[in-house]
Structures are given as structure tokens and as C-alpha cells.
């Protein structure tokens, strides 16, 4: 008897292909970059099919190796560089997320969603460049430092029962990685302010001016991420210093009163919006410390296919006339500002249509003439975002407080069929799925009860699981980790993994505050390592480089499923 | 006439044995199984079948079976019973082979109890004869074996796939060996029982008495008094004095078996943590009461609430509690070593960290040996009703608390406390009934009025 106890969630985030070709030429510009600190700010806006809008802020600071100019920094936040030097962090990512990424409507197969759809709460992983026996100590210190820096309860991740050591399924495959999540952390403005403090202009100038707290936290999804890469201490010789990447991804509902009035009966009408209507603010010029400051508007290929561009049939020839007006004045929509550049996707695996990227330079604008783009829809339009190969959801089975089972179910999406046929030339088409799941110690998982269901039929575990690595949980000591590599046939419709567990009993002082709310199980990360579709934009100007777009090139692909698991473990609550 | 009666008795004994085996098999074949293996009454962290399967799975995946805190049993059980957790016969219920092993263990235990009971009865008859108190004695071996086989607790533990039938078999094997003076067998039983669940270690005292002075008999003082009365001192009719020979023999064999078991464990855990890890996660787990999931004992509730600061203190208190009772009981009941073993087993099952109904099944079975001596026990109806009531109420309370969420921990703990009290009453009443029985014998011999109850 299997009971679905709680509604949960499915989020799925997939890794991406290369999204945009990177403009960085590792030539003369890079040598110059080694000598000075740089900062760039960018914003990418993308309409989403369900009448929402994705805004993705991307700030990147880079510092040259400390040997070149000592401990002084002009732009780079000193706190971060000290942290890197002290704990010898090679790579680190910290994300604060509120809300869940809706993979069905917001897509999962583009760089934005695959790298920025994060599990709710706090997620931290770090790779250290210290000997094995010092890693745990470094991790503890790092969590405490970050906790202080970002006003969050990251310090709870110091206990060995909360973090784990992924062996091979976690992206930066290395023995030195530590991974911890704190799913029940409430993310709010107190975490954003310290994050903004790391920017040279804070939120006083430039694109960060748009970060109006009430508008941001009104959104459906909010994820602030901090990623840093350091080659300070690497022995490989290439020493490019520290690169700090700060991104903020929000999904907002544009204020669409006018649209409702006009087309109240029309279901598919997209709300018209402008930056000032969404954020309530305008950009009055760039941050003067920024090397580049630009705003992009991305129209998905799915959307482009629906829009009637004059010479849509001939994409290649259209690319030649990039500056021609027909790409931004269109019978379907109207942009309030003329784009400075237009990029067209060079080639696409799905070959139905090509995505379009409009670029706006913020440098041109000033306080007297603030920058504000708006998009006005003239006709209703409906499209679908590109989905992940498999749609993942995780749920909890069973009732009562004694035992249960976790099920991870994968369902194929229509979008994948095209890829499947493209990838299955040799006949033996296999879809590789990596599942990484951490469970807290009080979920006592019976690994021998792992079952695989393919197309709703129970199948032998060894037929579909190529590799499995588990590290069983130790009471109050370490969480349980399960890493599974699944090989599924491409034609699979559904697949499910189930695993049984007993609920452990906690001592009275081990309950988290507000225990009746339930216990969150950290998200499962599901990745599709074999999916490499590419999305390359035509670009002839190699000097113009955008860190935002280039960053998406080598993204790791994961899907995140989260369940909020309600368990009222009431042992020993009575009579005290 | 007596022969016919005996024949009928023995016939119905085998009937009952067959009936109980068939009943077990029916329960094993019960459609969609009864899920007894996940009941807290049946499977504790030490005896749980699922944990055994998990330990075996980990071992098969080249990990230490003690990685994580799932398995806390012996590595030998893993090697013997582990393969049975995954082998299945097409078309048969899962774990059929494992269940059959449990049934066989139960039957073997019952047969050993029967043989021991017959030994005890013969020895007791002989000593009564030497006191000139010829008395009709019931066939306590058959009764004890039937109590053990037909006890719902035993059946549940057997069908619930816990490892307690095997632990119980080891304890019974030890007592059987000691009663029949098969010293290597006694030593083997004792070593295996200790290895599997630690608490039977204290049975070494009754075993030494059994080997040293023979099975249960009236106090030695009575014999001396009797002979003084008759003024004939017939040494041959006196019970033998304590002899150290068999005890030393036992110690030697126990040492040999322990080394053997440790070597086997060491071999099976060679590529993992070795013996130290085994001791830490078996004996260490028993002694530190790490798992606080509810069971029919009382310690889980206590340690879920006690302040961390006092935890070690109370751990010592609870375990020393068992040790404190060893010496006084050993002195008082030294002439009845089998009864002493029963009392020890009952005390352990009351105070152990993770008790299950399998432990009660064992001491209730052993109680059957003493039906003649304990005929005058008080509160026997009360105890019987108490056991029935607790075993019906406890699952209800557990269901209310864990599954329905309408009750709380106190509901379930109340039944656990009543259960503990019943066991205390049983032990106290049992011991006092046995002492009264001795007094009665003394009065018979010295000719004092029977009702002189001091």
C-alpha cells in the first residue's frame, strides 16, 4: 500500500549544453587581465511561457594572483580573497534559494536554468586544496566564516552529520569536495545585503540599482549564488587568480494590469513589461568601476518559432542582416529601446528555430536619461520551453511515523524525443542518468531494498544500475549518501527508484526548532552527463567578451528534487 | 495403567509439537505476510531481520557490515544466515528458507528443553528418594517444551524472522550441555550465546554450579539433617560436594571456543575494521543504548529524556543493576542452578537494552521445568492475565502513537512499564515460591507443622 503523503515538488534541473559561445579570447586580453582587477555587470531578461519573466543578474569580479600586487585590492572584495587564502579553497559555490524552479514551464535545458536552478535553502560545496586529513577542519572554518559573512545559519553545516563527501557523481569529481545543504534556511534580505556588499558599487549604481528588495522577494523564485574559482594555489602553473561570480536569478510576475484590461478574454496574451514596472527602478548609467555593463534580452527558440519574423525561413541570411530593424520591430511585439546588437543563434540541435539575443549597452545612459527597456506584446503568443530529457520528481511513500520509502521517478518529456533520435545513430541508444542523494542520519535507509522500476515493471537492479556507491549513515555522525549511475534505454517512458527507510527517533534536544513543520530531506541531484547540445551565437567581434555568456559554457547539469517531509517524531516529547 | 497414561501423554505431546509447527508454517505462508518482522516487539536493532539483510548487502558490496549504524549482530550470523536473506524459491513466500531455519531452531530448542527437563526430573526424583519423600512428579520436560513451542511470543519471534530463536537455542544448548554434563557442548552454547547477545555471559555462574554439584536438588543442609535424624551417614546418598574438575574442564573448553569464534570473526572481518569494530558496534551498541527507537523495554524512554550530562552515570546504574543481583541470588539459590539460570534470564530480559518478546519466550519456557516446585506460586492468574493484557494492549498503543498520531509516547510506554512490572512480580514471586518450597521440604523432614510459614 503506497500512500502519497505530501505534495512535493518537482524540480528538475538539467545541465546544459554550451549556451553561448564564449567571446573570451585567451590571447592578449588575458595577459592584460592578469595584471588588473576587473569587474563586470550584466543582466539577462527572458520572458517565460507562463506569463512570467526571468531576470538573471550576473556580476563578476576577478583578482590577479596575490603575488602580483600583494594583499591590496581595488575592486575585489577583501573578505573573499582572505577566505580563499586562509582555507585554500579551490572552488566553492554557495547558493541561497527560495521557491522552487518550475522545470515544466520555465525549462530545464538552457544554461540559465541548469546552473541557477538550485535546491531550496542553502547549498554549499567547496573543493579544497589541502591534505585529506585537513579538509574537514577547513570545511568547518569555512562554514563559520561564510555564516558570519552572509548572516545565515551556514554554521550548522559544520557538524559531520550534515555534510557529505561525494565520491564521483558530484560535478567537480575529486576527493577533496565537501557538499552540504541546509534545506530549511529561510532566505531573505538579510542574506542579500552582505552579498551586495561584495560588489564594488554595491546597489548604489549600475545594474544592481534594480535590486529593489520588495520587488525581488515578491517573486516566485529567488536564488542568489556565489561561485568562486581560485587558481592561487594550484600547481598546474596557470595562475589566473580568483574569479568571483555572483548571480541572482529571480522569476517575477510582470505587472500586467493593462494587458488584462485589453485582452481579458485572451488566455495566451503575454503581459507587457518594462524594467521600471518590474523592479520599480531604472538604471541610471553604469557602475563606473565596471569594465562592461550590459543588459540582454533573450528570446527562446520556442518563442522565436512562434513569432513571425519576416525572413524566419532563412535564418542564415537573416543573420547577415543583424542590425536590420526587422528583428526588433515585429508585428508581434515592440521593444521600447533599440538594441545595440542582435545575436542570432548560430546552429541549433533542434533546428526548428534559432534563439535571438538582444544586447543593450548601459554605458550610453546617464542619470538624466535612465535606461529602461520595455517589451510590449501586440498579439497573444504561446510557446514551450525546452525540457530536460527526463522529468524527475521525488516523493515519499508510506504513512505513519515508523517507516516509509523514498521514490525518485523519472518521466520522459516530449522534447527529448528529438534528441534521442539524433543520438541513437548506432542503435544502442542509452541514456545515462546520475542520481546523487543525501539523507540525514535519522532517515535510516535500507540500501538492500533499492528497487528499479522501468516502464512501471519491477526490474533487476543490476540491469539498469551501472555503478552504485553508498556510504551508509551513522547515527548522529554522518549522513547517508547514495550515488547511482543509471543506464536507461532511450525509449524509456518512466523509470523509478525506490528505497525503504525507517524513521529514527531523536532525543529531545536533537529536534530542530519548530519540528512539527517537518524535516527537509536534502534535494536529490539528477544529472544527465551525456547531453551536450550546443547553442552558439554568431559573433564576429572577439574583443567584446561577456563573462555572463561565457560562464554558461561548461555548466554542470543537474536536476534537483526536493521533498518537504513531514514527520512528527514525537518520541520522548511527553511528560517533560 | 501408568504405562498407558504415559503413552497417551507422549502421544499428545507429539501432537502438540506437530500442531505448533504447522501453525508456524501457516503463518509463514500467510498471504502478503503479516509484517511481523518490523514490529518493535519482535525485531530490536539487534535481532531485526531487515538489518541483517542490510548488513549482508553491505558485506556483499565490499563494505564493512558495520558501516553505518544498521547492523549490530555477529559476523558469523551474516555468513550463516545472510545468504538466506536473498535466496528465494520461485513461487514461494520471500524468506521462506530463513523462516524454516527459525522453525528448526525452535523445534531443536524445544527438544533440548524436554531432554533437560527429563534430566532434571530424574535427578530430583533421586534426591527426593534419598530424603525418603517419594512424591509423584509431573513430567516437567514435556510441559516446558510445550510451553516454549506453543507460546505466542515464541511463535511471533519465529515468524517475525528475528534472530532471537537462534540466540535462545544457544542459551538452551548451554544449559542442556551443563545438565547432561556434556562439557564441550555447554561451553560452546555459552560462548555462542555470549557472542550473540552479551547478556547470557552471566549464565556462567549457574553453569559452574551445575557442573560442580549437579542439577537442582533440595538444599544440602536437608540431607545432612535427614541423615542426622536417621543417624546413618550414608555418604553415597548425599549430593556430591562441589568438584572443581568439570569447572576447569569447562573453562578450558570455553576458552577454546572463544578463541575459535574470535578467529572466525576476525577472518570474516579481515578486510574491514577487524575485531575492534565488531566489539564497538555489537557490545558497544548494547552497552551504550544508542538506538532510542521504542521497544518493549523501558530504557529507550528514559535515555531519550535524560540529560546528556547524566547519561553515562545512568548507563552504569542500569547495567550494574543486573550485576548487583547476581551474587545474592547465586548464594540463595546455589543448590538449584537451573532455577538460578531461569531467574538470571528473566532479569536480563527485563533490564536489557533492547528486549524483545523472544527473550520472554525463553524464560517462560524455562519456567516450565519447575511446575512441581512452583505449584504454590502466588499471583499466577494475575500474571497470566497481565501478560495477555499487555500483549494485546501494547500493539494497540503503538498503533495509536506511531501510525495514527492520536496517542503519544506515554501510551506505549505505559504498557512497557506494566510489562516490566509483571516480570518483576514474576521473578520475585517465583523466587519466594521456590524458597517456600524448600522450607516445606525442610518441614516435612523435621516434622514441623506444614503451615509454618516463616
From TrEMBL, chain A:
GO terms for biological process: attachment of GPI anchor to protein. Keywords: Signal. It comes from the Eukaryota. The keyword Signal applies. Residues 1-22 form the signal peptide. GO terms for cellular component: GPI-anchor transamidase complex. PANTHER family: GPI TRANSAMIDASE COMPONENT PIG-T, GPI TRANSAMIDASE COMPONENT PIG-T-RELATED. This is GPI transamidase component PIG-T.
UniProtKB/TrEMBL annotation, chain B:
It comes from the Eukaryota. This is GPI transamidase subunit PIG-U. It comes from Gossypium darwinii (Darwin's cotton). Pfam families: PIG-U (PF06728). It is a multi-pass membrane protein. Belongs to the PIGU family. GO terms for biological process: attachment of GPI anchor to protein; GPI anchor biosynthetic process. The lineage of its organism: Eukaryota, Viridiplantae, Streptophyta, Embryophyta, Tracheophyta. InterPro entries: PIG-U. Its main location: endoplasmic reticulum. The keyword Protease does not apply. The keyword Endoplasmic reticulum applies. It is found in: Endoplasmic reticulum membrane. Coiled coil: none annotated. The chain crosses the membrane at residues 12-30, 66-84, 96-115, 182-211, 247-269, 281-303, 309-331, 338-357, 377-397, 409-428.
Amino acid at each position: 500500500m503506497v500512500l502519497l503523503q505530501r505534495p512535493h515538488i518537482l524540480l528538475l534541473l538539467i545541465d546544459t549544453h554550451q549556451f553561448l559561445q564564449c567571446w573570451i579570447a585567451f590571447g592578449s586580453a588575458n595577459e592584460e587581465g592578469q595584471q588588473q582587477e576587473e569587474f563586470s555587470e550584466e543582466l539577462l531578461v527572458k520572458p517565460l511561457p507562463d506569463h512570467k519573466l526571468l531576470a538573471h543578474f550576473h556580476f563578476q569580479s576577478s583578482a590577479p594572483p596575490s603575488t602580483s600586487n600583494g594583499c591590496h585590492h581595488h575592486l575585489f572584495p577583501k573578505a573573499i580573497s582572505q577566505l580563499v587564502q586562509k582555507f585554500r579553497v579551490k572552488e566553492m559555490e554557495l547558493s541561497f534559494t527560495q521557491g522552487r524552479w518550475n522545470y515544466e514551464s520555465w525549462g530545464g535545458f538552457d544554461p540559465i536554468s541548469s546552473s541557477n536552478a538550485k535546491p531550496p535553502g542553502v547549498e554549499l560545496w567547496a573543493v579544497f586544496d589541502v591534505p585529506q586529513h585537513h579538509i574537514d577542519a577547513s570545511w568547518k572554518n569555512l562554514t563559520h566564516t561564510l555564516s558570519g559573512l552572509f548572516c545565515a545559519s551556514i554554521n550548522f553545516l559544520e557538524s559531520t552529520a550534515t555534510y557529505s563527501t561525494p565520491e564521483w557523481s558530484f560535478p567537480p569529481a575529486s576527493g577533496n569536495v565537501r557538499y552540504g545543504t541546509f534545506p530549511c534556511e529561510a532566505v531573505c534580505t538579510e542574506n542579500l545585503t552582505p552579498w551586495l556588499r561584495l560588489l564594488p558599487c554595491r546597489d548604489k549604481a549600475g545594474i544592481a540599482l534594480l535590486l529593489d528588495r520588495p520587488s525581488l522577494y515578491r517573486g516566485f523564485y529567488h536564488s542568489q549564488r556565489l561561485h568562486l574559482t581560485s587558481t592561487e594555489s594550484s600547481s598546474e602553473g596557470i595562475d589566473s587568480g580568483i574569479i568571483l561570480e555572483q548571480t541572482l536569478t529571480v522569476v517575477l510576475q510582470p505587472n500586467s494590469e493593462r494587458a488584462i484590461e485589453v485582452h481579458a478574454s485572451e488566455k495566451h496574451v503575454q503581459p507587457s513589461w518594462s524594467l521600471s514596472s518590474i523592479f520599480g527602478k531604472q538604471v541610471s548609467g553604469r557602475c563606473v568601476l565596471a569594465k562592461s555593463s550590459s543588459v540582454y534580452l533573450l528570446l527562446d527558440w520556442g518563442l522565436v518559432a512562434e513569432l513571425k519574423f519576416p525572413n524566419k525561413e532563412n535564418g542564415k541570411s537573416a543573420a547577415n542582416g543583424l542590425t536590420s530593424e526587422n528583428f526588433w520591430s515585429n508585428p508581434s511585439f515592440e521593444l521600447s529601446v533599440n538594441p545595440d546588437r542582435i545575436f542570432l543563434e548560430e546552429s541549433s540541435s533542434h533546428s526548428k528555430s534559432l534563439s535571438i539575443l538582444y544586447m543593450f549597452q548601459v554605458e550610453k545612459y546617464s542619470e538624466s536619461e535612465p535606461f529602461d527597456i520595455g517589451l510590449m506584446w501586440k498579439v497573444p503568443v504561446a510557446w514551450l520551453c525546452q525540457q530536460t530529457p527526463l522529468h524527475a520528481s521525488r516523493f515519499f511513500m508510506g504513512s505513519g511515523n515508523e517507516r516509509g520509502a523514498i521514490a525518485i521517478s523519472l518521466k520522459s518529456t516530449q522534447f527529448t524525443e528529438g534528441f534521442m533520435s539524433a543520438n541513437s545513430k548506432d542503435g544502442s541508444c542509452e541514456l545515462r542518468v546520475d542520481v546523487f542523494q543525501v539523507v540525514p542520519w535519522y532517515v535510516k535507509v535500507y540500501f538492500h531494498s533499492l528497487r528499479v522500476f522501468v516502464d512501471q515493471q519491477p526490474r533487476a537492479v543490476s540491469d539498469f544500475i551501472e555503478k552504485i556507491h553508498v556510504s551508509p549513515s551513522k547515527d548522529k555522525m554522518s549522513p547517508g549518501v547514495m550515488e547511482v549511475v543509471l543506464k536507461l534505454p532511450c525509449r524509456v517512458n518512466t523509470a523509478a527508484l525506490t528505497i525503504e527507510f525507517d524513521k529514527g527517533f531523536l532525543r529531545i534536544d536533537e529536534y530542530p526548532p519548530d519540528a512539527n513543520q517537518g524535516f527537509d530531506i536534502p534535494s536529490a541531484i539528477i544529472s544527465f552527463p551525456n547531453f551536450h547540445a550546443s547553442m552558439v551565437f554568431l559573433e564576429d567581434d572577439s574583443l567584446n567578451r561577456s563573462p555572463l555568456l561565457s560562464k554558461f559554457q561548461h555548466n554542470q547539469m543537474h536536476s534537483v528534487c526536493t521533498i518537504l517531509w513531514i514527520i512528527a517524531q514525537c518520541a520522548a516529547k511527553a511528560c517533560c | 495403567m501408568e504405562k498407558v497414561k504415559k503413552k497417551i501423554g507422549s502421544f499428545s505431546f507429539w501432537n502438540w509439537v506437530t500442531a505448533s509447527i504447522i501453525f508456524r508454517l501457516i503463518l509463514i505462508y500467510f498471504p502478503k505476510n503479516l509484517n511481523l518482522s518490523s514490529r518493535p516487539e519482535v525485531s530490536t536493532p539487534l535481532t531485526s531481520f531487515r538489518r541483517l539483510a542490510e548488513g549482508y548487502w553491505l558485506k556483499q558490496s565490499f563494505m564493512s557490515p558495520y558501516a553505518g549504524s544498521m547492523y549490530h549482530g555477529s559476523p558469523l550470523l551474516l555468513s550463516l544466515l545472510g545468504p538466506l536473506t536473498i535466496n528465494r524459491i520461485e513461487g514461494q513466500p520471500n524468506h521462506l528458507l530463513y523462516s524454516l531455519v527459525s522453525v528448526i531452531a525452535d523445534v531443536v530448542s524445544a527438544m533440548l528443553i524436554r531432554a533437560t527437563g527429563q534430566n532434571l526430573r530424574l535427578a530430583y526424583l533421586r534426591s527426593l528418594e534419598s530424603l525418603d519423600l517419594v512424591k509423584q512428579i509431573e513430567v516437567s520436560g514435556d510441559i516446558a517444551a510445550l510451553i516454549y513451542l506453543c507460546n505466542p511470543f515464541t511463535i511471533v519471534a519465529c515468524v517475525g524472522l528475528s534472530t532471537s530463536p537462534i540466540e535462545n537455542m544457544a542459551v538452551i544448548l548451554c544449559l542442556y550441555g551443563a545438565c547432561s554434563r556434556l562439557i564441550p557442548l555447554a561451553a560452546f552454547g555459552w560462548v555462542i550465546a555470549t557472542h550473540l547477545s552479551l547478556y547470557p555471559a552471566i549464565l556462567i555462574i549457574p553453569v559452574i554450579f551445575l557442573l560442580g554439584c549437579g542439577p537442582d536438588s533440595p538444599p544440602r543442609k536437608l540431607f545432612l539433617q535427614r541423615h542426622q535424624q536417621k543417624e546413618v551417614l550414608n555418604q553415597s546418598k548425599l549430593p556430591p560436594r562441589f568438584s572443581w574438575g568439570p569447572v576447569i574442564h569447562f573453562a578450558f573448553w570455553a576458552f577454546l571456543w572463544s578463541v575459535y569464534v574470535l578467529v572466525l570473526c576476525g577472518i570474516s572481518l579481515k578486510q574491514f575494521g577487524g575485531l575492534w569494530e565488531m566489539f564497538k558496534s555489537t557490545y558497544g551498541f548494547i552497552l551504550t543504548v544508542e538506538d532510542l527507537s521504542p521497544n518493549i523495554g523501558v530504557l529507550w524512554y528514559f535515555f531519550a529524556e535524560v540529560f546528556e550530562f547524566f547519561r553515562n552515570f545512568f548507563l552504569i546504574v542500569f547495567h550494574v543493576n543486573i550485576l548487583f543481583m547476581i551474587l545474592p541470588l547465586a548464594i540463595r539459590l546455589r543448590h538449584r542452578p537451573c532455577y538460578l539460570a531461569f531467574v538470571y534470564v528473566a532479569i536480563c530480559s527485563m533490564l536489557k537494552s533492547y528486549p524483545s518478546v523472544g527473550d520472554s519466550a525463553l524464560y517462560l519456557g524455562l519456567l516450565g521445568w519447575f511446575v512441581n516446585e512452583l505449584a504454590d506460586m502466588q499471583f499466577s492468574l494475575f500474571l497470566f492475565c497481565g501478560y495477555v493484557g499487555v500483549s494485546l494492549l501494547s500493539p494497540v498503543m503503538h498503533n495509536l502513537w506511531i501510525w495514527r498520531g492520536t496517542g503519544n509516547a506515554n501510551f506505549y510506554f505505559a504498557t512497557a512499564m506494566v510489562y516490566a512490572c509483571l516480570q518483576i512480580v514474576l521473578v520475585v514471586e517465583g523466587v519466594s515460591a521456590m524458597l517456600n518450597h524448600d522450607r516445606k521440604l525442610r518441614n516435612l523432614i523435621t516434622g514441623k507443622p506444614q503451615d509454618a510459614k516463616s
